[in-house]
């Protein structure tokens, strides 16, 4: 068991992953591993996906880049995909879910349009990322969280903070 847990926050773009991950990091003292930013900073891309209108992550290079940090524990990772991370890296996986109309508005205000907008809304309608998480991790560690309102955001933060405290207590109990 790691002294501090690793948490994965996943979901369709716009569901609130980076906002929640940053707040979890501030509240629980875990380090935020911002996969999209790390990929940009280190140019870990291999081409362009015209359906989603975004650069394609070079997953192997990203995994190499963050492996040492992940082995340390105490990390919160957010990304809009989850099947390529080693299963052993995460103690718990949260999948954020947002109603279509709200997600649509968030993505439009982010400048998404056309196929990129449609593909992302469909991704949420078909619960693609939730299924991916359930297929990639032990289903008992995968939790769906609503992310529609600021109340949802607060509840999710509270839930995750409680879980982190519980994890730390369990580690202390084992060490004693
Ligand atoms: N639960 C929520 N309630 C209201 N607005 C939210 C919520 N979660 C995220 N948002 C807003 O939606 C937008 C997208 O959030 P962001 O964290 O960037 O999503 P992601 O990282 O999943 O792409 C931001 O403007 C953010 O403030």
From TrEMBL:
Residues 34-57 are annotated as: NMPbind. Residues 109-119 are annotated as: LID. The keyword Secreted does not apply. InterPro entries: Adenyl_kinase_AK6. GO terms for cellular component: cytoplasm; nucleus. It is an enzyme of class 2 (transferase). Coiled coil: none annotated. It catalyses: ATP + H2O = ADP + phosphate + H(+); AMP + ATP = 2 ADP. Its EC number is 2.7.4.3. One of its GO terms (molecular function) is AMP kinase activity. Belongs to the adenylate kinase family. AK6 subfamily. PANTHER family: ADENYLATE KINASE ISOENZYME 6, POS9-ACTIVATING FACTOR FAP7-RELATED. HAMAP family: Adenylate_kinase_AK6. Monomer and homodimer. Interacts with small ribosomal subunit protein uS11. Not a structural component of 43S pre-ribosomes, but transiently interacts with them by binding to uS11. This is Adenylate kinase isoenzyme 6 homolog. It comes from Allacma fusca.
């Amino acid at each position: 068991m790691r002294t501090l847990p690793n948490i994965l926050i996943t979901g369709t773009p716009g569901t609130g992953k980076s906002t929640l991950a940053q707040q979890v990091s501030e509240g629980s003292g875990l380090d935020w591993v911002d996969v999209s930013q790390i990929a940009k900073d280190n140019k870990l891309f291999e081409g362009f996906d015209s359906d989603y209108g975004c650069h394609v992550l070079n997953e192997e290079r990203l995994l190499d880049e963050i492996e040492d940090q992940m082995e340390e524990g105490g990390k919160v990772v957010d990304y809009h995909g989850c099947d390529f991370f080693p299963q052993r890296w995460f103690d718990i996986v949260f999948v954020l879910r947002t109603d279509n109309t709200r997600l649509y508005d968030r993505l439009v205000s982010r400048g998404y349009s056309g196929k990129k907008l449609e593909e992302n809304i469909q991704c949420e309608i078909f619960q693609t990322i939730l299924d991916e998480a359930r297929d990639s991790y032990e289903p008992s560690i995968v939790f769906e969280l609503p992310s529609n309102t600021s109340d949802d955001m607060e509840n999710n933060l509270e839930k995750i903070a409680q879980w982190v405290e519980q994890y730390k207590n369990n580690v202390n109990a084992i060490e004693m």
